[in-house]
Design brief:
Elements: E1 3-12, E2 15-25, E3 30-34, H1 41-48, E4 56-61, E5 64-65, H2 70-75, E6 77-80, H3 92-102, H4 107-120, H5 136-146, E7 154-158, H6 166-181, E8 185-190, H7 193-199, E9 202-207, E10 210-215, H8 217-223, H9 236-241
Keywords: Antibiotic resistance, ATP-binding, Nucleotide-binding, Transport
InterPro entries: AAA+_ATPase, ABC_transporter-like_ATP-bd, ABC_transporter-like_CS, ABC_transporter_ATP-binding, P-loop_NTPase
Pfam families: ABC_tran (PF00005)
């Protein structure tokens, strides 16, 4: 397993945000953390990407411990947060080249990588425009492209389609599916069952920091029961009064 989590806990004062969750993700698959606001999804991602230290338990990414080996973890992951982390005053190309240089690429290699990613995410025509002129969907695609500059083995996507219209969501879903076909492992958080159903091999349902259910999208849907209320009226007059 490329992601291994055992008994992961995170508290803030007396509030227990993660209450001992266990996760496993096989390489080249998609795991969706599904749940409402406050379920602990973003906190879990922050711990797994070394942004927040856990209060207990263990987590390993590609065999590296997130507490003892944070630098090694960062070398193999990419992260796209809930809000696009791009420089609005630079062009799309400049954003990607800058990040490539920060990742250790030579200038020529960084420009080649930037060009490839701009093409991949349908941003080539806007490559030399300032990002402040981009639509919300274009910014999200650029943000996703930036998370791939270093060639991560595991990509974390924290509610990647928040604020996007249906067309923008579809474009992003297609991009994520393409990455998985190439072998990238994806861990995404979402509030949308449709998104988890479309992208995930396995779904973990979080509720108040605990794992409420886990399984394939089809298995979880099959296990969800429905309730039906039937009203029987002895006469038409009773029905009219109801």
């Amino acid at each position: 397993m490329i992601v291994e989590v055992e008994g992961l806990r995170r508290t803030y004062g007396s509030a227990e945000v993660l209450a001992g969750i266990d996760l496993e993700v096989a390489e080249g698959t998609v795991l969706a953390l599904l749940g409402p606001n406050g379920a602990g999804k973003t906190t879990a991602v922050h711990v797994l990407t070394t942004l927040v230290r856990p209060s207990g338990g263990t987590a390993r990414i590609a065999g590296f411990d997130v507490v003892r080996e944070p630098r090694r973890v960062r070398e193999v992951i990419g992260l796209t947060g809930q809000f696009a982390a791009v420089d609005a005053e630079q062009t799309g190309r400049e954003n990607l080249v800058m990040l490539g240089r920060l990742c250790g690429l030579r200038r020529g290699a960084a420009r080649v990588a930037a060009g490839d990613l701009l093409e991949r995410f349908a941003l080539a025509d806007a490559a030399d425009r300032r990002v402040r002129t981009y639509s919300g969907g274009m910014r999200r695609r650029l943000d996703l492209a930036m998370s791939l500059v270093g060639g991560p083995r595991v990509l974390f996507l924290d509610e990647p389609t928040t604020g996007l219209d249906p067309a923008g969501r579809t474009v992003l879903w297609d991009a994520v599916s393409g990455l998985v076909r190439e072998g990238t492992t994806v861990v995404l958080t979402t509030q949308y069952l449709e998104e988890a159903d479309r992208l995930a091999d396995r779904v973990v349902l979080l509720d108040r920091g605990r794992v409420a259910a886990t399984g394939t999208p089809d298995a979880l849907k099959a296990g969800v029961g429905g309730e039906r209320l039937e009203l029987e009226f002895p006469a038409a007059a009773d029905a009219a009064r109801a």
